[in-house]
Write a structure and sequence with these properties.
Layout lengths: L2 H17 L9 H101 L1 H5 L1 H11 L3
Length: 150
C-alpha cells in the first residue's frame, strides 16, 4: 500500500466515524503523523524524566547504603572499644580488690601492734607504779649517777 492509499483509507475511515457520530480527530495522514510524533516526543520526555528520577533515587540509595555501612562500622568499632573498656574496668576492679585485701591485712597487723603497744604501756605504767619499783628508785638513780645513763 502506498502513502496515497493510506491517506485515502484514512479519509474513508474518518468519514465513516463522522457519519456514525464520532468526530475525526485528524484531517490528514500528515496531521496524524505530527500528532504521533508529538506523542512519541512526550513519551520520550516522560521516560527521560523518569530515568533521571530513577538515577537520583539510585544515587540516594547508594549514598544511604554507604552511610549505613559507615554507621555499622562505627557501631562495631564502638562495641569493640566498649568491650575493651569493660575488660579494663574488670582488671582495675580486680587490682582494687587485691589492694583492699593488702590494706585489710596491714590494718589488721597495725591493730595487733597497736594493741600490743597499749598492753606494753599499761605494763610499764604498772611497773612504775608498783611498790618495788618505787622502793628501788633511789638505787637506780644512784647507779645512773655513778655509771652514767644508758
Amino acid at each position: 500500500m502506498s502513502l496515497k492509499n493510506l491517506e485515502e483509507l484514512y479519509i474513508l475511515l474518518s468519514e465513516i466515524a463522522n457519519n456514525n457520530g464520532f468526530s475525526p480527530v485528524y484531517r490528514s495522514l500528515n496531521q496524524l503523523m505530527v500528532a504521533e510524533n508529538s506523542w512519541l516526543q512526550e513519551q520520550y520526555v516522560n521516560f527521560w524524566q523518569k530515568q533521571q528520577e530513577d538515577n537520583k533515587k539510585l544515587i540516594q540509595e547508594q549514598t544511604f547504603a554507604a552511610q549505613i555501612a559507615d554507621r555499622d562500622q562505627t557501631i562495631q568499632n564502638l562495641t569493640s572499644l566498649m568491650a575493651e573498656c569493660e575488660q579494663t574496668v574488670q582488671n582495675l576492679t580486680s587490682q582494687v580488690a587485691e589492694r583492699d585485701q593488702i590494706v585489710d591485712k596491714f590494718t589488721s597487723e597495725l591493730n595487733q601492734v597497736t594493741n600490743e603497744l597499749e598492753k606494753t604501756k599499761i605494763e610499764a605504767v604498772n611497773y612504775t607504779l608498783s611498790t618495788s619499783w618505787r622502793i628501788t628508785r633511789p638505787l637506780r638513780k644512784l647507779k645512773d649517777l655513778l655509771f652514767g645513763k644508758k
